[in-house]
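dumping this here so i dont lose it
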């Protein structure tokens, strides 16, 4: 069992574990991380029918591997060399490989780079190179990654500090578990140390990782002995960086570690944000990724850790910089494969008596029920036509990817059945675990198409989509045959309403038949009294992901109207929308439900705009936040976000690409940094016209489904109307 691990250098490592009254520390003096080197696989997918492997020589290694062995022998980065047999792919047998024990964790990459430089780039393949530090130790020593909470629960301490502040003089703004601990930097240092000494936390939750070096800098300046960890000092594990993922720019802040305590940085912890500490701990047990690393890990990294564990259980090594060329496809197959899931254009407008049905974890269950895995799709040993529309074969041998996902699918299904009967802390724990697992399942499909995925493969991605398209089309046909009209459908969800003039078979009965045919549950999600599907902004065509509706009251007897109204894609669901605009839209939705009257909704807008013009709106509710996509000097347009970035730089709080800037618009027509005020500045005024436009757009999202666009809304607000000859002839 592991709380956290400290790499001490020179091959030494300290392992911290929980005890009934604190922690225990065990130092491993002779731990040596290991990597493997083999001849490049004859067939990268491990398909049967490839050429014979290179004939072995001494110790079962090929001549070229023995030359490499001689080259590495005696190097400072190498602590030992040996020969071990392991599988290089899921479809090949074990074969002798060169095992290299590195002198230190840092030496692993040094050795791997020297291997790649020794001969031609495709001569060797290195394995087990780029594991994260703590995951590597747990894997190589078969050490459980999760702390033993049967001994005691984890103790946490939360430190919050404004992200825009950086100097020692700003330390009095720090809070510990929500309370200020001093009015001067020296008092803050004493207060932090006192809180740590009294509570002896196992987990330090910090709002920004920059707080750690700042505290130690202040301690040096004031001559104070600060023990943030259970030993003195701290370690910088990684510097800050900017990255791009699926065309979105992200920012990864610097990472730090302190001895004997886990640090979770709220600004860089997806899973802590989505599922809290309980959700993180649930994933630690499932992934084998220790809490310190899971705290900053992406969804893909956690999924990779799970895949690595499954590969290890099958004695398959993990390739470094895996190269998986796409297999040959005809032009027609490429065209058929290069499509996503099925969507049915929504029937724009207001619909009464609508029912939503969803396939349970559709993509993970397709992987599981169709045995989709990198080594099973187009395996080379089966001549079958399994994937609809593409003709790919799928091997009969059990794939590893379904084995990774099956426990997650089953666990989440079981958790969801337990949640309704649970309460208090148990309910929170179950909901956190369900949320954490959900994100892994949501991402497993896309990760198959990710070029850097350790075990990804584009043919798997294509096959999953092909099955999903057929499943939704078959479900649509079955529902229409049963007397239902499909008003919208997207990937794994479908909305239906009774077809006029036809008798309907019970939805539950139809859903059961579809589920049995598909092998994946088509679940009844909810009924709506009404649903409004929105048109696109500049078109009358339906927007696929913009709708709102009121879920049927008897299904939510204890829910208020705010809980019963489900929204997707409109302003209230967008992170950049200010709280005030979101509140205006929420009130408009309530009035729309009560009256179905565009005029009544516009009356809400009129009243809220009057308060805005009269200065009655709290400026803190007008804060807009936008993610920065590049450096401030790289923007060519003078947008409000650019103005905010310039202002932040002037204030000494510049932001890197991937970070978020938060501001209030004070004069949209001005120039430069004066157009906005940052959230932490004096917010005494705001640009009324700019926020009026934002509110009108939010109301347009509500009323566009019933034919009222911005022009009609503004005409009503101004008290004028367009009269036509036809009106006077009625």
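and the seq i came up w/
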């Amino acid at each position: 069992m592991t709380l956290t691990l400290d790499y001490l250098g020179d091959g030494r490592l300290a392992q911290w574990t929980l005890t009934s009254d604190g922690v225990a520390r065990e130092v491993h003096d002779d731990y040596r991380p290991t990597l493997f080197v083999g001849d490049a696989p004859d067939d990268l997918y491990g398909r049967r029918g490839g050429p014979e492997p290179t004939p072995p020589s001494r110790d079962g290694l090929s001549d070229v591997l023995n030359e490499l062995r001689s080259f590495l022998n005696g190097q400072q980065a190498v602590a030992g060399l040996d020969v071990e047999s392991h599988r290089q792919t899921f479809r090949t047998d074990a074969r002798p490989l060169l095992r290299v024990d590195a002198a230190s964790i840092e030496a692993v990459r040094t050795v791997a780079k020297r291997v790649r430089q020794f001969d031609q780039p495709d001569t060797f393949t290195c394995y087990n190179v780029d594991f994260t530090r703590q995951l590597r130790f747990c894997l190589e020593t078969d050490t459980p990654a999760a702390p033993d909470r049967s001994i005691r629960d984890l103790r946490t301490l939360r430190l919050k500090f404004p992200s825009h502040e950086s100097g020692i003089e700003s330390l009095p703004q720090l809070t510990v578990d929500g309370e200020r601990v001093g009015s001067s930097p020296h008092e803050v240092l004493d207060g932090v140390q006192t809180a740590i000494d009294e509570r002896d936390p196992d987990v330090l939750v910090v709002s920004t990782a920059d707080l750690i070096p700042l505290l130690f800098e202040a301690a040096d300046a004031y001559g104070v002995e600060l023990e943030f960890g259970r030993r003195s000092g701290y370690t910088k594990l990684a510097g800050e960086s900017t990255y791009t993922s699926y065309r979105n720019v992200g920012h990864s802040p610097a990472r730090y570690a302190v001895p004997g305590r886990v640090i979770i940085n709220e600004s860089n912890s997806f899973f802590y944000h989505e599922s809290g500490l309980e959700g993180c701990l649930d994933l630690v047990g499932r992934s084998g990724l220790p809490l310190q690393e899971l705290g900053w890990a992406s969804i893909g990294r956690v999924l990779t850790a799970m895949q690595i564990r499954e590969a290890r259980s099958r004695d398959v090594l993990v390739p470094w910089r895996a190269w998986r060329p796409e297999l040959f496809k005809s032009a027609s197959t490429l065209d058929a494969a290069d499509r996503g899931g099925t969507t049915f254009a929504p029937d724009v407008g207001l619909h009464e008596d609508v029912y939503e049905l969803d396939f349970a974890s559709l993509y993970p269950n397709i992987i599981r029920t169709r045995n989709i895995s990198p080594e099973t799709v187009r395996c080379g040993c089966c001549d079958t036509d399994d994937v609809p529309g593409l003709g790919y074969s799928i091997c009969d041998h059990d794939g590893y990817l379904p084995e990774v996902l099956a426990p997650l699918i089953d666990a989440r299904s079981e958790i969801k059945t337990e949640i309704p009967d649970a309460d208090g802390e148990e309910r929170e724990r179950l909901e956190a675990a369900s949320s954490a697992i959900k994100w892994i399942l949501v991402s497993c499909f896309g990760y198959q198409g990710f070029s850097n995925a350790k075990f990804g493969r584009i043919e798997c991605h294509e096959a999953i989509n092909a099955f999903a398209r057929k499943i939704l089309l078959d479900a649509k046909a079955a529902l229409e045959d049963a007397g239902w009209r499909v008003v919208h459908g997207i990937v794994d969800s479908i909305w239906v309403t009774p077809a006029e003039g036809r008798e309907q078979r019970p939805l539950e009965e139809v859903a059961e038949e579809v589920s049995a045919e598909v092998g994946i549950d088509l679940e009844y999600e909810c009924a709506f009294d009404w649903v409004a599907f929105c048109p696109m902004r500049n078109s009358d065509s339906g927007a696929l992901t913009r709708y709102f509706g009121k879920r049927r009251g008897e299904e939510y007897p204890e829910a208020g109207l705010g809980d019963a109204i489900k929204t997707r894609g409109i302003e209230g669901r967008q992170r950049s929308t200010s709280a005030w605009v979101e509140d205006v839209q929420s009130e408009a939705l309530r009035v729309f439900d009560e009256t179905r009257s565009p005029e009544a909704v516009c009356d809400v807008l009129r009243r809220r705009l009057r308060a805005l013009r009269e200065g009655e709106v709290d400026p803190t509710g007008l804060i807009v936040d936008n993610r920065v996509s590049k450096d401030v000097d790289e923007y060519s347009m003078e947008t409000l976000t650019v103005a905010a970035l310039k202002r932040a730089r002037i204030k000494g709080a510049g932001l890197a690409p991937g970070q978020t800037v938060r501001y209030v618009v004070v004069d949209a027509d001005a120039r430069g940094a004066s157009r906005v005020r940052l959230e932490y500045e004096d917010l005494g005024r705001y640009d009324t016209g700019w926020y009026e436009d934002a509110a009108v757009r939010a109301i347009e999202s509500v009323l566009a489904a019933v034919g009222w666009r911005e022009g009609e809304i503004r005409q009503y607000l101004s008290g004028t109307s367009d009269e036509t000859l036809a009106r006077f002839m009625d």
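The chain is about 35% helix and 20% strand.
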